[in-house]
Amino acid sequence: MDIALFNLMSQNRADEMPAEILGMTVEKVRLAERLGFDAAWFAEHHFTSHSVCPSPLMMVAHCAAVTKTMRLGPAVVVLPLHHPLRVVQEVGMLQALTGGRVNLGLGTGHQPHEFSTYSIPMAERTAILEEGWALIERGLTTGRVQLDGQHYQVPDAPIAAFPGTMPPLFLAGGEPRLLARAARAGASLFISQGHRRAAAALGMREKLLAALRQHGLPETALKLAIQRYVFVTDDPAEKRRAAEGMLRFMRTTLSLRDAVPPRDGAFMREVPFEGEPGIDWLLEHAPIGSVEQVTARLVEDFELLAPSHWSLYMGFSGLPAPRVLASLERFGREVLPVLRQLAPARVAEPVG
């Protein structure tokens, strides 16, 4: 089982500057490598403080220069917002720069304002991704690109930097045929568990399995990648601030489903949502707090959901950067060794 550090690069406070956020992200990645994390992920979002990173591949390139062993990848390239000819060449280049340490996350995207600002029809995002994915796969495996599709017409052409194989692939999307295609390719399927206890997330896992069964695939074809929000601290006041940060993060995340998200300039406004958890519930049930509580919640996740990959986000709290680094170090030194002892989840092989 792989354990990765997820980097959203949110602007949690109006006084945080993008250079500060990006610089601290690099420091977290370097620390995570020293602590023994397997990988680091970098998000892609546009036009709001939810993330100051519109180009995760640029972050991969930068962090490749300051790391030696850990895998690096975009989680995810929102492929409908990019021309796949650009993506295939940049991923090939990154494979060369990193010595083959790239993980490739692709996704359909889910924020209407991003699509409208780019003048791309959101309703067609799955079909656009499928065409782009086909071109990327062909280019990285054969060194040539060609596509006669509805959205892209690409004449036959060579590309110079190609690894001869696809990097480990991760997919974020909900269309059943897309999930089945990914499973056939041996890709991992991302879900965001968020604040939910494992039992409450079983329905998300079942939706993935139903999509695979619908397309004639066995349940063993599922490789589950889970995104989880965690924060380690023994300080009660800091734990409460982290829980408040988690609730604030959930509120802004859900607001991004709106056609026009609530924001002042680029900075997201916090809007409560129906059925949201209370702070006291989060303090009891979320993986926030002591090493023992965080470990117990993740062990529960493993036993019920059987992930083959964890993507762990620690930057949601809004606490000062030194406290986030301290949480990461506590996790790496005291939680990570326990997780390494868990029996590995069964890893699926490509089907057909």
TrEMBL record:
A Pfam family matched in the record: Bac_luciferase
InterPro entries cross-referenced by the UniProt entry: Bact_Lucif_Oxidored, Luciferase-like_dom, Luciferase-like_sf
Molecular functions (GO terms): monooxygenase activity; oxidoreductase activity, acting on paired donors, with incorporation or reduction of molecular oxygen
The keyword Oxidoreductase is assigned to this record: yes
Keywords attached to this entry: Monooxygenase, Oxidoreductase
GO cellular component terms attached to this protein's record: cytosol
Domain Luciferase-like per the UniProt entry, residue ranges: 9-300
Positions in coiled-coil regions: none
Keyword Oxidoreductase: yes
Name of the protein described by the UniProt record: Luciferase-like domain-containing protein
Organism of derivation: Teichococcus deserti
